[in-house]
Amino acid sequence: MAFTYDPNYFISSIPNIYGNDEIRLPQIEAYKKIKDYFDSEYKNRNSLVVLPTGVGKTGVIALSPFGICKKRTLIITPGTTIRDGILKNMSQENPNNFWYKRKVFSYGFPLPNVIEYEGKNTPEEVLQVSNIVVLNVHKLQERLDSSLTNKVDPDFFDFIIIDEAHHSTAETWVNCLEYFKNAKVLKLTGTPFRTDGVKIAGELIYKYPLSRAMHNNYVKSLQNIKYVPGDLKLTIDNDSSKEYSVDEILNLGLRDQDWITRSVAYSQECSEKIVDASIEALNEKLATSNDIPHKIIAIACSITHAQQIASLYENKGIKTAVIYSGLPSETKDEIFKSIDNHRVQAVVNVAMLGEGYDHEYLSVAAIFRPFRSELPYVQFIGRVLRFIHEGNENDNIAKIISHEHLYLDKLWEKYKKEINESEVIKNLKEYDEILDTDFGDDDDAGLPKDPTSTLEVGKVIESNSHTLYVDSYLDTELIRRSKKADDELNEKIKLLVEQFNLTEDQARAFAAQAQNANQNLNRPDLIVKNKKKDLDLVIREELVPNLIVKYEIDQRGTDLRNCALFTGKLWYLKNKAKDNIAMLAMYYNAYLRNEIGLPRAKWQDDDINRAFDLLPNLNNFVEGVLSTYYNKQ
Residue 218 phi/psi, 5° resolution? Predict the structure, then answer.
């Protein structure tokens, strides 16, 4: 069999990337940073790019070899789900592959030869004519004769891309990079740390914050709902004659917090309350959405536990699937098809859907297990972040539901910060005109794999009264619009009941039907046409929001007038800005204008590059001034 092979494909091809409105801004930004890095005299061949789930990591993978790879590219994935997704998005046989769909190349233009390495099942001649080789990391184990490192020379690849790079410290990954010691390395992840909290090795060259992704509608906003029982008692050692409150158990030192979380996780009574709360959240979404097939995704402690939770959902009329890694491939494929074709309303998983599975209609996250580290929690929440492009405001607010005594508040704080920053970005939009003016997985949660194992749990007795605590900190624009829409809908229902003598349920159904017929929320893609706009976005969507949140600055206050930033040659800015948020943004712009020595309208490419070079030191200076001013050194 004859194959066409161009060893210089990635250098000689001219992809349509810059100025391509079909490619997302963070994908273009990431590609530029990657290319600039490897075009420079870099000291560390390991580069790192951080992108939140849902922003377009696969697209970055598809773009990054162009102009960088001088031979072949190796793409390493941690599991089959991610591997299959990448292969699908790069398949020449798929008319919706990334390169054609995003108009990187026109239909019919020769695409790179992409193959999956399947060990002994991959013929040598196929391997030799490949431009891109995709494989699961297990195909790199040196002990196997079929390992790729036993099949090719160390210089076979010029470029290595590691997806979900928080796995990359494992021995197999490390040995692979040592074997291909001269290859450039790109690591991509949404979580730049390992289960043990250690940062991933590599030079961080680009990070797109979740706050920007939320603001630009690349991902859903989030709402945290915590089930708080009116009263909760536990028994110890199966002694039902004595019941203890949580405080009594902890204060008396009878058991520790881990014991409490295990007891709550395995309590059918507690689980049923979370099942009910998640079904209520699902029904609220289904009642106000425009035929959006919202679903619940739940996470359990073990296979047995997952099956128990699935039974609770099924008993309440919710068609439910259980999925875990030990299922046969055919069964997993059937379940995925049932999810994709909306034959189920809930999916209960056991460490299975943490990475690589994308289904935008997963909108309610029900947590039935504790988390001992941030990584698996972040990965699970990532499953509900995918934005629903045809949805309305309510459709794009994902709800996270958990029990108070799983103690997940600390892990939730990460998202509270990101959401707050997304609000700062929105508020800065008010000042567009004035700012544009030139003035002078390895976590086991501490749980047994099966509830029948020897780790002790206590019996939980809950009162019927409870509170669903919705985190009031979350007040994003989507959530405010959602509340306003709910108020308007309730007013319509009231009028229908009064004027047409309908029941409340009849009126609600009628109003929802009319509302759905008129809904058409378009996705506001933010595409940047030039570097000046890139600079604005970095200031307005990253630097200023981070400072506002980090130093807890009152956005609408004016106290920054008295800080050292506005006592020197830029003193006049405090008289042109009405509040703190505007003062900060204007300070960055005015400082850069003064340093460049020209109005921004007259900046050339070199001037803009110079401004980007000035930003890191400028930001460090501003942080130092604010730290001193707010006594947070």
Answer: -85, -25
- pTM for this model (two decimals): 0.69
Length of the chain measured in residues: 633
CA distance 18 to 63: 11
Q: Rounded CA gap, 89 and 58, in Å?
A: 8
Which tens digits make up the pLDDT trace of 275-312?
999 999 999 999 887 789 999 999 999 999 999 999 99
pLDDT of residue 176: 87
Cβ–Cβ < 8 Å for 332, 241: no
Coil, helix or strand for 627?
Answer: helix
- Element spanning 75, H or E: strand 73-77
CB 548: neighbour CB atoms within 10 A?
23
Residue 429 pLDDT > 70: no
Phi, psi (degrees; rounded to nearest 5) at 294: -60, 150
User: Is the pLDDT higher at 437 or at 274?
Assistant: 274
User: In this structure, are residues 390 and 179 in contact, taking their beta carbons and an 8 Å threshold?
Assistant: no
> Which among 124, 3, 104 has a CA at the least distance from the CA of 58?
104
Beta strands in 150-246 (DSSP E): 159-163, 184-189, 203-207, 221-229, 232-236, 239-245
Q: In what order do the strands lie in the sheet with 346-350?
A: 320-324, 346-350, 295-299, 362-367, 397-403, 221-229, 466-470
Q: Which helix (H) or strand (E) holds 77?
A: strand 73-77
CA distances for 123 relative to 129, 142, 241, 369, angstroms: 10, 19, 69, 45
Q: Which residues of 502-533 are buried (b: 16+ CB within 10 A; e: fewer)?
A: beeeebbeebbeebeeebebeeeebebeebbe
Who wins on pLDDT, 228 or 427?
228
Domains of the chain as residue ranges with CATH: 9-208 (3.40.50.300), 215-418+441-473 (3.40.50.300), 531-629 (no CATH)
Check: CB of residue 255 under 8 Å from CB of residue 236: yes
Mean pLDDT for the chain overall: 82
Whether pLDDT at 337 is above 90: no
Q: Within a 10 A sphere around the Cβ of 373, how many other Cβ atoms? A: 18
Largest CA distance in the chain: 82
Backbone angles phi, psi at 490, to 5 degrees: -65, -35
Across the beta sheet with 459-462, what order do the strands follow?
239-245, 232-236, 459-462
pLDDT, position 278: 96
What single letter denotes the amino acid at residue 542?
A: E
Look at phi and psi of residue 67 and say left if phi exceeds 0, alpha if psi is from -120 to 50, else beta: left
Q: Which amino acid would we find at residue 226?
A: K
- Residue range 394-411: average pLDDT? 90
Structure tokens at 132: 């891109």
CA distance 280 to 292: 16
The DSSP output letter for 522 is -
Which one-letter DSSP state was computed for residue 219? B
Q: What is the pLDDT of residues 373-401, one digit of tens each?
A: 887 888 888 889 899 988 888 899 999 99
Helices 268-288 and 477-500: crossing angle in degrees, nearest 10, is 70
- In the 8-state DSSP scheme, what is residue 112? P
3-state SS class at 460: strand
Provide the pLDDT for residue 520: 33
Task: Report the alpha-carbon distance of residue 168 to residue 511 in Å, rounded.
Answer: 52
For 556, phi then psi, to 5°, come to -95, 0
- What is the DSSP secondary-structure string of 310-333? HHHHHHTT--EEEEETTS-HHHHH
